[in-house]
Amino acid sequence: MEVLYFAWVRERIGLPRERVETQAATVAELVEELRAREDRYAAAFADLTALRVALDQELANFDAPLAGVREVAFFPPMTGG
Amino acid sequence: MEVLYFAWVRERIGLPRERVETQAATVAELVEELRAREDRYAAAFADLTALRVALDQELANFDAPLAGVREVAFFPPMTGG
Amino acid sequence: MRIAVQSEAFDLGAEVSAFAAEVRGAGAVVSFTGLVRDEGGRLSAMEIEHYPGMTEKAIAGIVEKAARRWSLADALVIHRHGRLEPGEAIMMVATAAPHRADAFAAAEFLMDYLKSRAPFWKKEIGADGAEWVAAKDADEDALNRW
Amino acid sequence: MRIAVQSEAFDLGAEVSAFAAEVRGAGAVVSFTGLVRDEGGRLSAMEIEHYPGMTEKAIAGIVEKAARRWSLADALVIHRHGRLEPGEAIMMVATAAPHRADAFAAAEFLMDYLKSRAPFWKKEIGADGAEWVAAKDADEDALNRW
Question: How close does chain D come to C111, measured CA to CA in Å?
């Protein structure tokens, strides 16, 4: 699946998107896998309350299932307008 | 003093302004004097709740004193905006 | 702060554009424009009467009240009188403030007060004749929220 | 209803003017524009990142919600991304409705949701470096009033 990062999440991890092969059943499980990879991931995902997630471009919760999802995006709370 | 009429008050009385010599102490007394003049005045001043008054271009009440006032205006509730 | 009471049409876009270009330090600009509705074709024109002299003073008082209450970088009120066709702009207000909540609140406040406290009277001219627009209780009630 | 997400500057006056000219049957047009504040000279630029694809969908969903809730004759949202200078317009919304209460409410609703539910992220570039703008609790709280 495609994993996208925006704003300071993108800066902390150091890339805007990547392809991830995973068996994670939920967003939270995917976050655990990413955290375990490298310090920069652990740093980006240190505080989930500071993060938002979108599944196939719709806002979702961290306990949402990943079955059938093609695109996951992680980013801080939005600051539009 | 100058007495001004606007909107349907002006149309009912048939003139936009007139000079009125009066000893009326309050707006309400002036209204009584005008009502007694002719039917068109009685018709215009039939229902005071449908009227507003301004003294020297400031909104006022019907019991306000007329001492020192140069300009009295009668009109329906405003419909600006 | 600018107040204009005029019979001439005004250019809404040019006014909003100039207003937004001139404010300094504001992050939020709100504009409101009132247009003559055609009421499904029943309205052929609107005539707006006003009280020269009092109108300008009343609007200035309303703008001052708004400026005391909210942090405004600037405010603009333009109100026409005379004969207007359906689709024409009757009036506009614009407000500028550091943040959006103040700009919105001040614009709504100006509109609520202009509706019921500025000496304008609207007459609708239709196929069936002419009729003075009656003030709505809702417009008087709207003042109570401030 | 028109939604534009673009890096190019837009002409606020021309947009408001065209929007008001095209609405039929509306008596009230409200516009809101967000400008880059210069924060007393401390800000040299703002960079706005967004999520292409999701941004347009999210804004369309917000506009649909507003259209279901209020009697809207029309609505417009323009939001820029990329690098902006102080004083430049970041975005605008415009709403048209038969009466002013609906036009104001819908514009404020659109703004509240665009703030916290459209995937944009602002970064302020100043003399001391660059910093991502933090979301405010007040902006999240603002959604609760709808």
Answer: 9
C-chain CB neighbours of B10 within 8 Å are 49
Count structural domains, chain D. 1
CATH number of D77's domain: 3.90.1170.40
Q: The domain containing residue D113 runs over which residues?
A: 2-144
Q: What mean pLDDT do residues C47-76 have?
A: 98
Indicate the residue of A8, A73, A81 with minimum beta-carbon distance to D51: A73
Summarize chain D as % helix, strand, coil (round to 5): 40, 35, 25
Closest chain C CA to residue B51: C135
Residue appearing with tokens 């991830």? A20
Q: Which ranges of D1-146 would DSSP assign to H, the alpha helix?
A: 12-22, 54-69, 100-117, 137-142
Residue spans per domain, chain B: 2-75
In CATH terms, B2-75 corresponds, of 3.10.20.30, 3.40.50.300, 3.40.50.2300, 3.50.50.100, to 3.10.20.30
Q: Which residues contact C75 (CB under 8 A, 6 or more apart)?
A: C1, C2, C63, C66, C67, C93, C94, C95, C96, C106, C110
Nearest chain A residue to D139 by CA distance is: A79
- Mark the ranges of chain A whose per-residue pLDDT is less than 70: none
Q: Can you give the pTM of this predicted structure?
A: 0.96
Q: Tokens at residue D81, please?
A: 């991304």
Mean residue pLDDT across chain B: 97
Contact between chains at C34 and D100 (C-beta distance less than 8 A): yes
Q: How many beta-carbon pairs under 8 angstroms link B with C?
A: 69
The pLDDT of residue C40 is above 90: no
Predicted pLDDT at D127: 85
Say whether B80 and C119 touch across the interface (CB within 8 A): yes
Check C104 against D100: CB less than 8 A apart: no
Instruction: Choose among B8, B10, B75: nearest Cβ to C119.
Output: B75
To the nearest whole number, what is the mean pLDDT of chain A?
97
